[in-house]
Amino acid sequence: MSQPSLPFPEAPIVPPFHEGAATKAALASLNAWYERALRSGAEGGGLTLAVLWGGYGVGKSRLAAEFGRRVGATFLAGPTLSGLPPRSALPLVVIDDADQASLGALFAYVNAALSRPQPTLVIGRSRPGRWGGGEDETGVQDLRSRLMGGTVIELDPPEQTAIIQVLAIALRDAGLTVPPALIEETGGRLCRRFVAPLTIAATARRLAGPGKTPRSLLEQALKSNPEQCG
């Protein structure tokens, strides 16, 4: 097994954009919402707001990044939201980890999204009807109502075939040569989250060294990350 000689700290393995069935379905919903939002103009009524949600590691941020790249987007992080929402010169505003924002800050941004003609996409790990737990109940219910009044899109976990394909790409990008049959076998043991093959590839790259076979290396990577196994 080969491993590149790097004079600098290893760069992170960037997740590839993979259009499996789950991703294609969510992307089609995003495209349909975005076209409706642009046509609606300043009519409001929730048409310019969408919520993309799905479990940890299923590819929400990567999907939003690809969608934003195609249409042009300003990206914001939920935990750092504060003050009044700025106006963006780009067509779309994306708020990642919006479910981790403070109630007041997210409220301001959601209200802005509902009153402006600019489409806004907010992203979280759970259905928006569950956001804001532990905060002021009246404000939480109002926020949830406004979020649920927008277009709600769920991103399902990726198919196992997608996990295998991403593992192959991640291992290649890590500079590791692994037989296709072993990649398929290993990928079939991983959970259906894109973070799983990326974690295994990064661990394998870190553990690689003289005398280690591809199988022993991947077995060690799997044992080091039991939470990534299905």
From TrEMBL:
Top-level taxonomic group: Bacteria
SUPFAM superfamilies tied to this protein: P-loop containing nucleoside triphosphate hydrolases
Name of the molecule in the record: Chromosomal replication initiator protein DnaA domain-containing protein
Biological source species: Parvularcula bermudensis (strain ATCC BAA-594 / HTCC2503 / KCTC 12087)
